[in-house]
Amino acid sequence: MSVRFEELDWQPTTMGDLTLRRRVEPSLGVDVYEVKLGEEFLMSSLFTVAEEALATLGLAAVEGDRLNALVGGLGLGYTAVAALADSRVHGLTVVDALPAVIDWHERGLLPVSKELTGDVRTSLVLDDFFGLMRAAPGPESPRYDAILVDIDHSTRHQLDPSHADLYTHTGLLALSRHLRSGGVFALWSDDPPDDEFMVELARVFAASLAHVVSFDNPITGGTSANTVYVATV
User: Fold this and answer.
1) What's the alpha-carbon Rg for the chain, to the nearest Å?
2) How would residue 11 be classed by pLDDT, with cut points 50, 70 and 90?
3) Do 9 and 107 meet the contact criterion of CB atoms below 8 Å apart?
4) Nearest of 101, 79, 137 to residue 20 by alpha carbon
5) Distance CA 48, CA 63 (A)
6) CB-based contacts of 110: which residues, under 8 Å, 6+ apart?
7) What is the reported pTM?
8) 58 Cβ contact list (under 8 Å, min separation 6)
9) Which of 78, 144, 174, 219 is positioned for an S-S bond with 48, CB 3.0–4.6 A?
10) What angle do the packed helices 195-204 and 169-176 form, to 10 degrees?
11) DSSP classification of residue 38
12) What is the tens place of the pLDDT at every residue in 182-197?
């Protein structure tokens, strides 16, 4: 166990100050890694069940072997590492728009960093995931078996207004063109299932489900839940 509180990194970004910190959670006596963007808490290593479920539920809906997967949003790395746990994954591209986040993992600052960067199947890419999805894929562009996304808080609460178009019919249709036939789009959300978003998914994808992922919350002493949407082309 480390010191009671430590700021591991701080970087200014166009969306606000990005902070990585490690603290001891008194109620559990364990180290907790947290990320803040401005005044918003983005993620905590205390709560990774739904982030991991994003990968397991998304990949479970894909048939076949030698899968080529794309993760949008690196964060603490738990979605990516859960994807690598699926032996069918042949290649994993992880896209993040923040250089600091990629740097944290390359420096081994987070609990799963070495597992992630030490796997030869992993490629960490600095780029705008939303811009990549808007762009029409060319003849040589990869088509993915799974696109797993955990960037915004939810379909209605984005970190940046420029992300909002992904959750519309136009944005989902553009994303679907980066999937192979039978490919899967999976999305993490901090909100309960959104009926209007389900309608938009149904307009683009052949099948779609909203999974409510519940997990124990040691801070409140109760149960919390996130949503994982899974849609198949």
Assistant:
1) 17
2) very high
3) no
4) 101
5) 25
6) 20, 33, 45, 76, 77, 104
7) 0.95
8) 146, 148, 184, 185, 186, 228, 230
9) 78
10) 40
11) T
12) 999 999 999 999 999 9
